[in-house]
Amino acid sequence: MGNGITAVVTISEVDSLIRSTTFHSISKDYYQSGSFIGTAALSATFSYNGSTAQATGASGTGSGANGWNYGGQNTWTSGSSAYLSASLSKGGASVPVSLSLTCSPSGSVS
Question: In this predicted model, what pLDDT tens digit does every residue of 54-86 receive, in sequence order?
């Protein structure tokens, strides 16, 4: 990502009792030169029917660490995708935070 920033991404699925609905979350941990500076997570619900998919809701959370501040968070959905944008900042430095999840018509999320 540049400036010694690296990110570790984790995607997880929560079992749904409703057929053709799936709930997933993605988290990203940020490091600067090996030091943890913050984390962000996006959770989203999708509906699908084999021919189309739709993101029906999204929420997000995040926090900074080691003097970094997390802020400016926005979450939204568009079509079959859910998005989160925010930033981690410290002094004059700023690191953009971006997460997304997309559902296929078969219910596969990436």
Answer: 999 999 999 999 999 999 999 999 999 999 999
Hey, what amino acid is at 49? N
Note the pTM of the prediction, 2 decimals: 0.87
| C-alpha–C-alpha distance, residues 74 and 51, integer Å | 29
- Cα–Cα distances (Å) from 55 to 23, 47, 106, in that order, read 10, 7, 13
Structure-block tokens of residue 9: 């991404």
Cα 48 to Cα 10, 14, 17, 23, 33: the distances in Å are 23, 16, 14, 11, 41
- Tell me how far apart the alpha carbons of residues 24 and 83 are, in angstroms, rounded to a whole number: 12
